[in-house]
Design brief:
Blueprint lengths: L1 E3 L2 E8 L5 E5 L3 E3 L6 H11 L3 E2 L3 E10 H8 L8 E3 L6 E8 L3 E6 L4 E6 L8 E10 L8 H15 L5 E4 H6 L5 H5 L11 E2 L8 H14 L12 E9 L3 E2 L13 E3 L10 H18 L6
Parallel strand pairs: 4-16, 12-13
Antiparallel strand pairs: 1-2, 2-3, 5-15, 6-11, 6-14, 7-8, 8-11, 9-10, 12-14
The structure holds flavin-adenine dinucleotide.
Length: 294
């Protein structure tokens, strides 16, 4: 990002082959997505833009038979349950439910994690959803991204480069899962490019206990969700990116005409919110350009 006299004045892009091109602009919107949040942090440090770290959401992806979830997903395709755990007073939530869906592996380069999706024309026997514990860090370490990455790296090490798959029953009994044990389960995993193992070897005890307690609580609304055969894939992680100090129009307070939008800038946490923040920034730019927007 080019900054001249405290104002954004354009960007320098690196083209294929490494050649740089300077592009001048009156306004710049930073919207690099989650994958670009580390880049944004470095940029904020370089430009002296004040920022704070967002919380980390980390846990597992839960997979059960469609029948277990159907009473709920027939009413709401992507239900959000917010749970407070008793032991740690932590916030645990369901997120990104995929009825008739598939669990997928995401490769971040330094580690792997899981996610899920549903398809229009291909349906599985299972429903999956993320079950995530919210972590805030204060003193002496605030960087939740680093903390989350180190958990994911450990999980990837234990999984031999693949996500870990464990039956809830095995986790509760303190033993690892094996393919033999998983085959005894009613639920057939939709992602088999995983390593059956022990999530408690990979994640802090607090997160594991929150997940087990949270699923027991969730069973009050969704009976069967905490059965021994329920499958857990780890790690699933949602990094809340750093949030730069911005105005309500999403312009940075330090550099004028420099706007932020989307998940990478920590101003949204999903596809609709990302689109809305892009609109907020764009409308403000148009307004300043004297262009009327409805
Ligand atoms: C598997 C999966 C399932 C999801 N399911 C849901 C869901 O059900 N509901 C929901 O609300 N959200 C879901 N999401 C999240 C949703 O995709 C994001 O919230 C949304 O895409 C964020 O939009 P964004 O514009 O901030 O970032 P992105 O969509 O990530 O866009 C950022 C773009 O910037 C580009 N970029 C970054 N850095 C650079 C660079 N240096 N140079 C050039 N280009 C760069 C990236 O390549 C990318 O194209 C899902 C995400 C995944 C991965």
């Amino acid at each position: 990002v080019i900054v001249e006299e405290g104002r954004a004045a354009g960007v320098v892009v690196k083209k294929e082959g490494g050649k740089e091109e300077r592009m001048e602009a009156d306004y710049v919107i930073l919207a690099p997505g989650r994958a670009g949040s580390a880049w944004l942090l470095e940029l904020a440090k370089r430009l002296g833009i004040p920022f704070r770290y967002g919380p980390l959401d980390i846990g597992v992806r839960v997979e059960v038979l469609n029948e277990v979830m159907e009473d709920v997903t027939k009413i709401n395709w992507d239900p959000k349950f917010h749970i407070r755990t008793k032991k740690y007073d932590d916030f645990v939530r369901t997120f990104c439910t995929n009825p008739y869906g598939y669990v997928i592996t995401e490769n971040y380069g330094k580690f792997v994690s899981v996610n899920g999706h549903s398809m229009k024309n291909k349906k599985s026997n299972n429903t999956n959803f993320a079950f995530l514990v919210r972590i805030h860090l204060t003193h002496p370490v605030e960087n939740t991204t680093l903390y989350g990455e180190s958990i994911c790296r450990l999980a990837t090490t234990i999984g031999g480069g693949k996500p870990i798959l464990q039956r809830l029953g095995d986790l509760k009994k303190g033993r690892r899962s094996t393919w033999e044990r998983i085959e005894k389960s009613y639920v057939e995993p939709t992602n088999k490019d995983v390593t059956p193992g022990d999530i408690s070897m990979a994640m802090p005890a607090r997160i594991v206990e929150d997940i087990v307690e949270g699923l027991d609580k969730l069973a009050g609304v969704i009976p069967g969700i905490n059965e021994d055969g329920t499958l857990l894939y780890a790690p699933e992680v949602k990094f809340k990116s750093v949030r730069l100090e911005i105005t309500k129009e999403l312009e940075t307070t330090k550099v004028k005409n420099l706007f932020t939008a989307g998940d990478g800038a920590g101003v949204s946490g999903g596809i609709n919110g990302a689109a809305v923040t892009g609109l907020i920034a764009a409308r403000e730019i148009l307004r300043r350009g004297g262009i009327k927007v409805r």
